[in-house]
Design brief:
By secondary structure, the chain is an alpha/beta fold. It has 27 helices and 26 strands. Pfam families: Glycos_transf_2 (PF00535), Glyphos_transf (PF04464).
């Protein structure tokens, strides 16, 4: 007979459940019973589980409930079927490391339980238990009663079934969300000795893919969970008379109130209005605990709440917000400029004749904002123009625009004052987009790779899938208009950016006007070549690869390994060609071009890529949206996709059929690439039909008047 039962309950978990089941199937020690409860799922998750366990060589107790009745009920049903010495619970969106069961069973030693840690989701999971890092302690309930209460969950704890059944311990089905504490507190009364594991990952809390529809407790909106958290707290303190436990639960409740009603939260007023009843109820109960060791204004807010004086409490909450910013200003710290902005930014300060421009987060003077500005500068020089730069002194701009440094007082003044914001990338959420301001987002490319909400999993440093999508949604909800280059992009923006067509300007990209208007301007093209000091008489090829999500070093820094084999390219093409290397701005490692000075030129920091398109005879790319802009010129393109299998399956995937819809050949071998580049004219003729089809689908909307459309719109709305 097995020693352990693992219980998994699920409801509509199609995005995660298979990963959870696979983590069970991959356990090195399979000496456990498995009980799975489908809590009335209405999606495909039940069928997915059944398909998965069909190939699993183990008897599984699969229980199907007709209607969804909640976690507590499903787990209580499962407990009726446990016949082993120990039982543990696994959430359907979580995963167990392959060594976990083996290690747990070797350490539980007949004690009354085993408590193991829960770690955040990670891609880099250990393959074995590192004995130099893991720590196991054997504790008593008298000395360490709160060990069972970590993380608000019963998951990753081995409970002794004899205790559960002898005392009929069950989950409280009257609670909606925070049901676990009721079970744990009743169980703890009968625990004497237990094992606790520290400092090493065994159990990974699942990653939320959809923060708006997901049912993961840790990511649900505070407004939806707070009342149940309060009910769970009152339920919990009724189940114990242990002072250490009550103190532990009370401190967690205090932290929930303090963090959940922090005055800096954007939706603080909504929280107060929606959660007034449970907030007043718990504050009345914990008034003196909450006021202990707290600051004067917070205590005053708590006092008003305990008296049910909500409006007074809200006033003090706002006063706390103001006092924080005043403190930053008086202390002259690095946030002083932002604090001044937050305190004094008002609708009446907006000037209808002022426009602020920013490109790639202030990196340079480029892209669609540049072309909109230059059109307006020529036609409406009387307006007030401001450009934002990280390094204003390093950027030369035409016209009379004021240059301001990002983060400076002038920067915040610009965004406070300007009626129009024009940028091609996301702006920080701490900038307050007011009702009488118009935010025009030009974006920076026709999407090939999945974007934002369409990305199932986000692999970027410093964020999670859930946080990334939430922040992206908060940003796109501020956009009054989004510029789209074609119908294909408009349809993608609907789902990726949550954009409706009324807010979408389907007019082509302003940065592409120059490709339409000056493609035959030889004098202009020759001047660009001279500015870049390119040798006369040679054909020009540009290499512009995408950045890969999984090649990051740290937040904002990525490494890139140049795969095109410059040595071979120079050998094969050096007499007739020059190659321009255009790397993504996120790439951190500088290119080493020693020995290739007359053949390869690094143009990564050249501000205007449109000018580079004009002078190039052909383009080498892979999965970058540069293909769409370059397609306007109907010149040859070569797709050097050396990692096509990995990129398609492991990273974002594609919107279009990459294998069939490109206007050129897909090449995976560096030597074949060199051979094909020798025959640019032949390539253009060979792919003539595909180049034309590609142009009609993605580029035909570009008429060279996008800057005029937006510039005129802005001018007409300045009054």
């Amino acid at each position: 007979m097995n020693k352990l039962s693992i219980i998994i309950t699920f409801y509509n978990n199609k995005d995660h459940i298979l990963d959870c089941i696979e983590s069970i199937k991959s356990q090195r020690n399979q000496n456990f019973d498995l009980i799975i409860v489908d809590d009335g799922s209405t999606d495909s998750s039940a069928n997915l589980v059944k398909e998965s366990i069909n190939t699993y060589d183990k008897h599984i107790n699969f229980i199907t409930l007709e209607n969804n009745s909640g976690h507590a009920h499903a787990r209580n049903i499962a407990l009726e079927h446990v016949n082993t010495q120990y039982v543990m619970f696994l959430d359907a969106d979580d995963q167990l490391a392959s060594y976990s069961v083996e290690y747990y069973l070797s350490k539980v030693n007949g004690f009354d339980g085993l408590v193991a840690p829960i770690h955040k989701f990670t891609m880099n999971k250990p393959q074995y238990v590192n004995k130099d890092k893991v720590r196991v302690e054997y504790l008593t309930q008298n000395s360490n009663p709160n060990s069972f209460l970590r993380k608000n969950t019963v998951c990753n704890i081995l409970f002794k079934n004899a205790i559960i059944q002898a005392h009929n311990i069950r989950f409280n089905e009257n609670l909606k969300i925070y049901t676990d504490a009721s079970f744990v507190l009743d169980y703890m009364k009968y625990v004497e000795r237990f094992a606790r594991i520290f400092d090493f990952p065994f159990y990974y809390r699942g990653e939320v893919y959809d923060p708006f529809e997901g049912n993961t407790l840790t990511d649900q909106e505070f407004i939806l969970t707070f009342e149940d958290y309060v009910n769970s707290y009152f339920d919990s303190i009724e189940r114990t008379d242990n002072k250490k436990v009550i103190h532990f639960l009370t401190n967690k409740m205090k932290k929930e109130i303090k963090n959940g009603f922090d005055p800096s939260l954007k939706d603080i007023e909504l929280r107060y209005n929606t959660l007034e009843k449970p907030l007043v109820k718990v504050v009345k109960s914990l008034k003196w605990d909450l006021m202990k060791d707290s600051k004067i204004l917070y205590n005053l807010e708590i006092l008003f709440l305990s008296m049910n004086a909500i409006e007074n409490a809200k006033y003090v909450n706002n006063l706390r917000y103001v006092s924080r910013h005043v403190k930053n200003i008086l202390q002259n710290n690095k946030l002083k400029n932002r604090s001044k902005y937050q305190l004094f930014d008002k609708e009446e300060g907006v000037d209808s004749n002022t426009i602020v421009f920013e490109s790639f987060g202030g990196k340079n003077y480029s892209d669609s904002p540049k072309y909109i500005y230059e059109y307006m500068q020529r036609n409406y020089p009387q307006l007030n123009y401001i450009w934002v730069f990280a390094k204003p002194e390093q950027n030369v701009i035409i016209g009379n625009a004021e240059k301001v440094k990002k983060g400076s007082k002038e920067y915040y003044d610009a965004y406070s004052k300007a009626k129009f914001w024009v940028t091609n990338a996301r702006l920080p959420l701490y900038l307050n987009k007011k009702e009488n301001q118009i935010y025009i987002q030009t974006w920076h490319g026709t999407p090939l790779k999945r974007l934002a909400n369409d990305m199932k999993v986000v692999r970027m440093p410093g964020t999670t899938t859930s946080n990334y999508k939430k922040n992206f949604y908060a940003e796109t909800s501020r956009w009054d208009y989004l510029v789209s280059p074609n119908r294909y992009s408009t349809n993608i923006f609907k789902t990726a950016f949550w954009m409706d067509e009324e807010r979408t300007m389907e007019i082509g990209y302003p940065r592409n006007d120059v490709l339409v208007n000056r493609s035959n301007d030889q004098e202009y093209i020759e001047q660009i070549k001279k500015d870049l000091n390119l040798p006369e008489g040679k054909k020009i090829i540009m290499y512009a690869p995408t950045w890969r999500d999984d090649e990051f070093v740290k937040k904002g820094k990525y490494l890139f390994d140049l795969k095109i084999n410059l040595e071979n390219l120079q050998k094969e093409l050096g007499d007739e060609y020059v190659i321009l290397l255009r790397m993504h701005y996120l790439i951190s490692n500088a290119l080493d071009l020693n020995g290739y000075e007359d053949f390869a030129i690094d143009v990564s920091n050249y501000n205007d890529i449109s000018e580079l398109y004009l002078i190039s005879d052909a383009l080498i790319t892979d999965y970058s949206s540069v293909m769409f802009d370059f397609g306007i010129l109907k010149k040859p393109q070569f797709f050097f996709a050396y990692d096509i299998e990995k990129y398609d399956k492991g990273l974002r995937g594609f919107y279009m059929n990459y294998m069939t819809d490109l206007p050129g050949e897909i090449i995976t071998d560096e030597f074949k690439l060199a051979e094909e580049l020798k025959n640019i004219d032949e390539h253009k003729e060979k792919y003539k039909d595909k180049i034309e089809k590609f142009y009609e689908k993605f580029c035909s909307l570009e008429k060279g008047e996008s800057s005029k459309y937006i510039g005129d719109y802005i001018f007409n709305n300045t009054k």
